[in-house]
Specification:
about 15% strand, two-stranded antiparallel ribbon, about 350 residues, Rossmann fold, binds S-adenosylmethionine
């Protein structure tokens, strides 16, 4: 089989036909989240205004908002395009990598035994039920079941982010702007739910002298993350572990990070994770969290709120509604952080900075 090289740090599709199919899916996704979403947003806003004019009051409950928006035809088209482009994305990525599964598994086996850095995982890892009960964002086999899940997720997110993160641009921008602890000391760093390790490698690049760890519940994720770090020549330690039970000693880290974890766990688990991170940080240590926007008082975004339910019901995100409508700043304060603030990054996701 011809080696078709790489896109950034990820192996390219196995055949050119597969790559052009995935290029098409990426454009379809770009159209869906761009012009189609914009059209749905303006129609949904207009429908809400008509409803409020007719009833003479603001619609505040989600039941009402969903009822009004459900009747907007272009929103149904948006839902269909989002679901179908997501299905096509996973089918295309799985099909292309499956063609050379043996080669890719051998590559993971070799990397497991290579450095720099290390990886620890176990075939008998005990997964919590909330993690295995569904396929996250309808990725068949989810984060843990398919041994190629790391490859699949990485290419899937390339399509999902419409090529804007092919060289980890998004991750590097997030990591490079995290504030340091007040004393400037960063000797040990932890990336929780690191997935394929794009934030973890960005952390090692920013703090080359620090000991950097990445943990994730999925073995295929940490194995792929380690392989990728080895290929990049970066010494990082990856371990299959739960964020709510990391196994690290008290006060072990100066800086910790998470990207897109908290909306993927039940609220009670999110509380445990926040407490665990407060425990493993040293006094003055910083926990930087990038995640989906929680609802803010006085900000009206009816289509965005509506799509949160789409993600729960049609996109394998069972915990997203609870997270979106929770007060995550309060969660972090309850966990013991002394100083917590939420920032809005320009053009990006919100970020919470929690200082122990
Ligand atoms: C959306 S991905 C995270 C993306 C990643 N942080 C990045 O920088 O691109 C969610 C990850 O969280 C992991 N995960 C979910 N629940 C977890 C838990 N309780 N502990 C550790 N990892 C978890 C999943 O295996 C998955 O790899």
């Amino acid at each position: 089989m011809v080696d078709r090289g790489r896109i950034g740090s990820m192996p390219a599709a196995t055949e050119r036909d597969d790559e052009s199919y995935l290029d098409f899916v990426q454009s379809l996704r770009g159209y869906t989240i761009g012009p189609l979403n914009a059209a749905a947003d303006s129609r949904a806003t207009a429908a809400m205004a008509r409803y409020e004019e007719r009833t003479g009051r603001l619609a505040t409950s989600m039941e009402e908002i969903r009822e009004v928006i459900d009747d907007v035809p272009v929103v149904a088209t948006l839902n269909r395009f989002m679901r179908t482009s997501q299905e096509m994305m996973w089918q295309g990525v799985i099909a292309t990598y499956r063609k050379r599964q043996d080669e890719l598994l051998a590559e993971l086996d070799r990397a497991d035994r290579s450095g720099p850095g290390t990886v620890q995982w176990s075939p008998s890892f005990a997964f919590p039920a909330y993690f295995t009960a569904h396929d996250y964002h309808i990725q068949p086999g989810s984060y843990h079941h398919d041994p190629l899940a790391g490859y699949i997720y990485h290419y899937g997110t390339k399509v999902f982010f419409t090529g804007r993160n092919d060289h980890d641009e998004m991750h590097e921008a997030m990591i490079d702007s995290i504030p340091l602890p007040a004393d400037g000391q960063v000797r040990r760093v932890l990336d929780i739910a690191c997935s394929v390790g794009q934030a973890t490698t960005a952390l090692k690049k920013r703090f080359p002298e620090a000991e950097v760890w990445g943990i994730d519940a999925g073995a295929p994720m940490v194995r792929y993350a380690h392989k990728r770090a080895v290929e990049m020549g970066l010494e990082i330690h990856f371990r299959q572990a739960l964020a709510e039970q990391t196994g690290f000693p008290d006060g072990a880290f100066d800086l910790a990070h998470s990207f897109l974890l908290f909306h993927e766990v039940p609220l009670a688990v999110g509380e445990q994770i926040a407490r665990e991170l407060c425990r493993v940080l040293r006094p003055g240590g910083v926990f930087a969290i990038h995640d989906l926007p929680t609802r803010e008082p006085n900000v009206r975004a009816p289509l965005r709120d509506y799509l949160t339910y789409f993600n729960r019901d049609d996109n394998g995100e069972p915990y997203i509604v609870d997270f979106t409508f929770s007060d995550f700043t309060a969660t972090l304060r309850r966990a013991g952080f002394s100083d917590v603030c939420r920032e809005q990054r320009s053009g990006g996701l919100p970020r919470w900075i929690a200082i122990k």
